[in-house]
Request: fold
Amino acid sequence: MGKSVQKITDKVSLIASADTWIEGDAIQQLTKTSELIGMQRVAGMPDLHPGRGYPIGAAFFSKNTIYPALVGNDIGCGMSLWQTTVKSSKVNLDKMVKRLADVESPLDESWSDYVNEQKARRQINIDSFDKALGTIGGGNHFAEFQAIDEVYNQSAVNEPGLLKDALQLLVHSGSRGYGQSILVDHISTFNHHGLQVESDEFTNYMQKHDEALRWAELNRELIALRFLKAIRATGKCALDVNHNLICHKQIDGIDGWLHRKGATPSDKGCVVIPGSRGDYSYLVQPIDSVENSTSLYSLAHGAGRKWKRGDCQSRLSHKFKREDLTRTSLGSRVICGNKDLLYE
Reply:
């Protein structure tokens, strides 16, 4: 799959082919971020779309200043791919749907010891959001059992150790209310202003940010384990990649801070780029390229969206009944107890 680079300004790049539909507001938001103090370069991905003041599907590289508002409230949002012990050919969809009836509720007490053990091991000290651990959340978050349909490059499948006949599980979620609380605290004190690197405020934010990353990674693991338990299987994590975070990075000789907001890293090995519901997802193996620094070592994190999620029910409810959305063109089933979220 080739990619094209469109230069919007000296600091702004759009990594998308010329015929990719991208909303004008998203490009305006992207350009606006390039004017922030200390911002060196920004890059929009093919799934770029407008957010609340800042675009989603983009990466931002700054020097001497970080901008927590660019990363937003879902610090540590990402994808984990698990290989299960179930063979895809043995899946009975009707049985699976019944067994997954309770996966949207909080974890019960039987998980407490494991949760506490994992929190201690991962140095997660916050307890206020424990009830959200193991839950997917709203927005475009999901967990999906998948079958490998076609292999284009066997080495890309071998790298994470995947077997073509095994059922896979892809989990997309983040730090839930914990990340939201960190952003609210930041904005209530600093509004949308940045933080000077190595200041006390920077150190305080990054400590919380890093804990939220670990919380999000544990959350995805717990989601995967409860799904596996529900279908009476086990599995192993093949990859886990965050696409909402701030990290230290040197790009073209500049020491700075890379912010990703809905942008998958291209410097962490194989990653999954999911499609829309009822469409294919792709396991991709990023390649070394001279364009990597232009794209800020980032890739699309999904299919993108054309409408605001909150508008979907009003736009779609007269065309589709709820029951229409519980099955897809590929024959898969959708489990979602929340009617609004089902349309979103």
